[in-house]
Specification:
Pfam families: AMP-binding (PF00501), AMP-binding_C (PF13193)
Largest sheet: 6 strands, mixed
Family: Belongs to the ATP-dependent AMP-binding enzyme family.
CATH architecture of the domain at 58-184: 3-Layer(aba) Sandwich
CATH class of the domain at 58-184: Alpha Beta
CATH topology of the domain at 58-184: Rossmann fold
Radius of gyration: 23 Å
Organism: Falsiroseomonas bella
Number of helices: 16
Keywords: ATP-binding, Ligase, Nucleotide-binding
GO molecular function: ATP binding; CoA-ligase activity; fatty acid ligase activity; fatty-acyl-CoA synthase activity
């Protein structure tokens, strides 16, 4: 277990001493699994819904990945093909990713709460050749499968039988650092979701940003868990793959619905030492009385996706006996800013300092680095190992993401004299709700397909638990009477057909939407208008 971050007494020393070690030839399957074959180490601890516990070694994980790679290749799936992974936190999901990487194919993780429309868009956009799922996922795919001509292979309930007949050895593809490995879809404010394409270097690129907030991860006895789904970059590349890279076991357990008391008990029962807990989970856990009674022994907690306030930080010190380290990133360029209480003081409200190896700055409106204390755009200098290769089949959108050598995040921030960065807000209207970054454009486009909706704007309004709640402001079609029954119908429409985490928890009806002279909806005006009513 060798960390990428070198020993150092201060943050300045750490930044000065750090050097990237990205081999020209690398494959995520080798780095996250094959390198530990023969070690006897435990890779996954799978807690079944029944309560049964299954421990899976790296050797077994490797054999399963080889078998699945052979099954996929027998079905005609080849290097460069996109493979959808629609599975919960379970060994099968990890195996699906490792098999895909070792084939030189491209993994496309898909969220379990996606409805058929959201799944169809993503699978069609990347022209996925194969999908690995379970019975629940199969039920969602069957109605749309005939509209996905590229999808030649769907592996679901009979997969175990096919793998049992396959060889447990497989020749891993020779891949380079910049060869494509992974597409994770992200949303902006306009148009459809974009697929952020990452190369095999993305795993090593994440490691410093995992090691720092997890207090010099890995240490002897570490064991990692997160309630975040592995379909998102936070679950997959903040937890699962970096832990496997370091030979640290990961607790795999899918909660049907997040239960804060169960989370405390789960971490204590399984001796979890490291956790990624999104701010919404922490807010819910804050309501559990006397958390010390569970006897948890956490060593480190990282949190990201929303800003943590002083109140949550102080509660965390009492509840866990440690300081929660906030971090920052986005799907295109993740884990580039972080706190590390063991190395430098944590300032409430600040998301930390630039992680060693990443050049993060605040840019002014001219694209120049702004002086300390000046608000501007949060940006990361290219090239950077954790940075995406580009948006899948969207060269124009990729170019728009950059300002010279800087990737512009779309977020606003400010930096102080010591290099602490504070997130101030978004300039692209993305909604942050329960740890999810939600692009209103996707939800608006979908709502327009509802028979009662003439026009719609989706905004985020302040929410004490979720940070923001998704709110739909709707102009009904002529002859439609807006009422609570229609609002419920619209909510169910999004929840069941698009995604449960995208549905508007608040629906408002109006006669017209405020627009600019060019016809753009003025979401800022709507946010002010409806926030003032509360």
């Amino acid at each position: 277990m060798t960390a990428l971050l070198p020993p150092a007494a201060t943050y300045a020393d750490l930044r000065d001493a750090f050097r990237w070690r990205i081999p020209a030839a690398c494959n995520i399957a080798e780095e996250a699994c094959d390198r530990w074959v023969g070690s006897g180490r435990t890779a996954l601890i799978h807690l079944h819904d029944s309560g049964a516990v299954e421990r899976i070694t790296f050797d077994e994980l490797h054999r399963r990945a080889c078998r699945l790679a052979n099954v996929l290749e027998a079905q005609g799936v080849a290097r460069g093909d996109r493979i959808g992974v629609l599975l919960p936190q379970c060994p099968e999901a990890a195996v699906a990713h490792l098999a895909t990487y070792r084939m030189g194919a491209i993994a496309v993780p898909l969220f379990l709460l996606f409805g058929t429309d959201a799944l169809e868009y993503r699978l069609a956009d990347c022209a996925a050749a194969a999908l690995i799922t379970d019975e629940a996922g199969l039920a969602k795919i069957e109605p749309i499968r005939n509209r996905l001509p590229a999808l030649r292979c769907v592996l679901a309930p009979d997969l175990a039988a096919q793998m049992a007949r396959a060889k447990d050895t497989h020749a891993r593809a020779a891949t380079g650092a910049d060869d494509p490995a992974l597409i994770i879809y992200t949303s902006g404010t306009t148009g459809s979701p974009k697929g952020a394409l990452h190369g095999h270097r993305v795993l090593r690129g994440h490691l410093p940003g995992v090691e720092l907030p997890q207090e010099r991860f890995p240490q002897q006895g570490d064991l990692f868990w997160t309630p975040a789904d592995w379909a998102w970059i936070g679950g997959l590349l903040d937890v699962l793959l970096p832990s496997l890279f370091h030979g640290v076991p990961v607790l795999a357990h899918r909660m049907q619905k997040f239960d804060p008391e169960h989370a405390f008990a789960l971490m204590a029962r399984h001796d979890v030492r490291n956790a990624f807990l999104p701010p919404t989970a922490l807010k819910m856990m804050r309501g559990v009385p006397d958390p010390a009674r569970f006897g948890q022994r956490l060593r480190s907690i990282g949190s990201g996706g929303e800003t943590l306030g002083a109140e949550i930080l102080e509660w965390g010190r009492t509840a866990f006996g440690l300081t929660i380290n906030e971090f920052y990133g986005q799907t295109e360029c993740n884990l580039v800013v972080s706190n590390c209480a063991g190395l430098f003081p944590v300032k409430p409200g600040s998301m930390g300092r630039a992680v060693p190896g990443h050049d993060v700055a605040i840019l002014d409106d001219e694209g120049r680095e702004a002086p300390p204390g000046t608000e501007g755009a949060i940006a990361i200098r290219a090239p950077d190992p954790v940075m995406f290769l580009g948006y899948w089949n969207r060269p124009d959108a990729t170019r728009e993401k950059f300002r010279g050598d800087w990737l512009v995040t779309g977020d606003r921030g400010i930096a102080d004299e010591e290099g602490y960065l504070t997130f101030l807000g978004r300039d692209d209207d993305v909604i942050t709700s329960a740890g999810y970054r939600i692009g209103p454009g996707e939800v608006e486009d979908f709502l327009l397909s509802h028979p009662a909706v003439q026009a719609v704007a989706v905004i985020g309004l302040p929410d004490p638990l979720r940070t923001e709640r998704v709110t739909a402001v709707i102009v009904p079609k002529p002859g439609i009477t807006p009422d609570t029954a229609l609002a419920r119908d619209i909510q169910d429409f999004v929840r069941t057909r698009l995604a449960a985490h995208l549905y508007p928890r608040q629906v408002e009806f109006t006669d017209a939407l405020p627009q600019t002279a060019t016809g753009k909806i003025m979401r800022g005006v709507l946010r002010q208008q409806y926030a003032a009513k509360e």
